[in-house]
From TrEMBL:
Residues 1-112 form the NFACT RNA-binding domain. PANTHER family: COILED-COIL DOMAIN-CONTAINING PROTEIN 25, DUF814-RELATED. InterPro entries: Jlp2/Ccd25, NFACT_RNA-bd. Belongs to the CCDC25 family. Pfam families: NFACT-R_1 (PF05670). Signal peptide: none annotated. This is NFACT RNA-binding domain-containing protein. It comes from Linum tenue.
């Protein structure tokens, strides 16, 4: 099941979603939209978190609040990342994700490393209270 979240109201009307496991991440990698931006804890295992931007918006002009929401979710859903203070979260447009036949399930690379941004490095304090109430789950086909 794909888990869907609404961004905090003050951030705007955005849908944030993530796969339940690495097999679902494969489907999200395969069937993304051009407006999707992918987030992951750098150099650690973590959930694949996506946000669907509004038409015409680019990943270079995502608001600080929306970046924070996505980073909180990806860190909270990293077995290693949620136990350490200092992490980096990387993000890139879905179209920049590269998947080859030799990669493990859920593993990705990038077509262009210059299109990868790092948002955060340092201590991060969670404010996830909003997310359980905004979460719903559906099969991957509602994503398509």
């Amino acid at each position: 099941m794909v888990l869907y979240f609404k961004a905090r109201p003050e951030v705007g009307d955005y849908t944030i979603f993530m796969g339940f496991d690495k097999f679902e991440n494969e489907e999200l990698i395969k069937y993304g939209f051009p407006e999707d931006v992918w987030f992951h804890v750098d150099k650690m295992s973590s959930a694949h978190v996506y946000v669907r931007l509004h038409k015409g918006q680019t990943f270079d002009n995502i608001s600080e609040g929306l970046l924070e929401d996505c980073c909180q979710l990806v860190k909270a859903n990293s077995i290693q990342g949620n136990k350490v203070n200092n992490i980096d979260v990387v993000y890139t447009p879905w179209s920049n994700l590269k998947k080859t036949a030799t990669m493990d399930v859920g593993q990705v690379g990038f077509h262009n490393s210059k299109m990868v941004r790092a948002y955060f490095s340092g201590s991060y304090h969670f404010q996830l209270g909003h997310y359980p109430s905004s979460m719903c789950d559906f099969g991957v086909d509602i994503f398509l």
